[in-house]
Amino acid sequence: xxxxxLGTGVVGRTLGTRLAALGNEVMMGSRTAGNAAxxxxxxxxxxxxxxxxxxxxxxxGEVVVNCTSGVVALxxxxxxxxxxxxxxxxxxxxxxxxxxxGMPPTLSVSNTDSVxxxxxxxxxxxxxxxxxxxxxxxxxVAPDSVxxxxxxxxxxxxxQAKEETRRLLQSMGWLPASIIDLGGILxxxxxxxxxxxxxxxxxxxxTSRINIAVMVGQ
Amino acid sequence: xxxxxLGTGVVGRTLGTRLAALGNEVMMGSRTAGNAAxxxxxxxxxxxxxxxxxxxxxxxGEVVVNCTSGVVALxxxxxxxxxxxxxxxxxxxxxxxxxxxGMPPTLSVSNTDSVxxxxxxxxxxxxxxxxxxxxxxxxxVAPDSVxxxxxxxxxxxxxQAKEETRRLLQSMGWLPASIIDLGGILxxxxxxxxxxxxxxxxxxxxTSRINIAVMVGQ
Lengths: 218, 218
Description:
Strand content of chain A: 15-25%
Shape of chain A: globular
Number of strands of chain A: 11
Helix content of chain A: 25-40%
Oligomer: homodimer
């Protein structure tokens, strides 16, 4: 599958490398065509990897994955271009972490809205699914780095888009039973607002290699 | 132990009943001395149960538990009186769910503040600990109603207060290993902001008998 990965940070590079290793053709997009991090990533990742602008990557991908921060995601997607996102599965795994108030970060959008909802409103012809933002990128690409059955969540208005997302997650090692469909895109608020708890857990437990398992009584 | 339970709703009644059954003397506080729900609860619960105003219950308790909504918690505690909370462990298990915008509820405070922080600031001589708000009251008093080891969280600035809270939770059946100290009272934001995810999970899974287990990799 052709996948456009937007963002050259550790999340984009980690996810891009894994997706390329699984046999997908991956183009990493960045603000400028000659981005050094993207070029280095493409060279070291090999034949399945290439790089270009945000618009190049979005046009290339049958699926587009937003790996930029939630604080800049809308601007990045505007640069990618609505015409390059039309009809496509757009996976948003961003968190709107705002460090401008100091530590701990706050969220630049929360409670009555979410980044995923903003994206879906701004690009109504894209099929937005929120997922993966509740785990560190090392866990995203290697779910067995955390023991036991633990969960990911899906939020999105398009049922078919969520099925396509499930298949992509399963290709990375996520078990079918680990993926919980929360409902429409509005439920992305819960995924994004989980981040402060995740950050506190990381602080208390001293590792980013954590995830939650939802336990259900009879 | 003498425990003041503030609030006559299902949370206060469920927790009060369990604490009385464990041998504690429990006074349920409400806005008015003759509250019918509190009187009925006290009568049906037996010798360990009594009722009074918020101030009566706070004065009575060696420990005070806020079981009112986070939206009214500050007003309730003002009615209880700072002099009746001074030096005491004040367990806050409230969620600031605001239904005025329709469903799903939003939070009346979040992101840059939390109910627990507001309470600690307003009552600096109380020793506030946030816990239990991440589970339904049936799970609070019967952790084995959800299978496996699943977690509760503690947030508070007073280490001794968190130890006292641990002991109270353990008396209700929470295993020592299930209780995670997140840090200071600021980390209550994470516990409170988890609620939208909990609400989505309840909707997706069709039950309130749920909780999360934090899984940690090596």
